[in-house]
Amino acid sequence: GSMSEEAEPDYWTDVSTDTARRLSFGSVAEQYDRHRPGYPAEMVDAVLEYAAAAPGDPILDVGAGTGRAAVLFGARGYEITAIEPDSEMAAVASKRAATAGLRIEVVASDFEGADLPQGAYAALVSGTAWHWVSPGVRNRLAAGGLRPGGALAPFWNRPHWEGNPIRSAFDAAYLRAKDDFAVRARGPMNPSGAPAEIKSDRQWLEDEFRGDPDFGDFETRVYDWRQRYTTGEYIGLLGTHSDHIMLPADARERLLAAIAAAIDEAGGSFELSYQTLLCLARRRST
Questions:
Q1: Are 115 and 145 in contact (CB under 8 A)?
Q2: DSSP 96
Q3: What whole-number distance in Å separates Cα of residue 138 and Cα of residue 212?
Q4: How far is CA 148 from the centre of its chain?
Q5: pLDDT per residue as tens digits for the range 104-126
Q6: Contact 210/253 with Cβ under 8 angstroms?
Q7: What's this model's pTM, rounded to 2 decimal places?
Q8: Terminal C-alpha separation, the chain
């Protein structure tokens, strides 16, 4: 494709209709729970502060996965309704909530089809999942569920590859596997495919809500943090990404072997920088 086509972040294309990818995570639910990164505590605080929420208030978690974000908000004393369309992911979330003894109700449904109280929630959060909800529909559904003044707060984790010494070895591995990814070689774990932004600030502040009657007070915040991975942990993490899950088995094995060799050569572990982008919008009171 052309330069501009290459530079377009992958979340600008609507993936919500790609059911196979959207529901590809259940097959690796336990692995997902073990390997996917969490979210910074100060981000959780920022959401609650922006929402002017008090412990006991109801919070809706859309695309809850295995309950990573739900547990963080639940542990602060909030009552969480966690919606997850993949039944295997939802089962792991339920188990996680029960183990933690938190008030988290897991609903196995997609957001579009869920039967939820209207005007009820202090905040709607969505951890690296809001892009799976249909773009034309998600803001209307959010506006319906939130109480006046309530916060719409999706957030995304993205690896930040710039300056990482292991990057060139990873680039070489992905370059060799490029044809196997067909047109989807732009996932976040592919250093050359990962957009520099998460879901860009500009898209949230300008495009997502143009002319929207229900929301105001738009804000974005970025949190930087790092995580160290051993070879085994990182290979486990890659196996939870839809673009990798859907590769043909032999192509996936070749790619993961090359990645593993690169980490082993670097001493058996490496540190990855992450950025979490938090996007905020407030349900208008009128």
A1: no
A2: H
A3: 12
A4: 26
A5: 999 999 999 999 999 999 999 99
A6: no
A7: 0.80
A8: 46
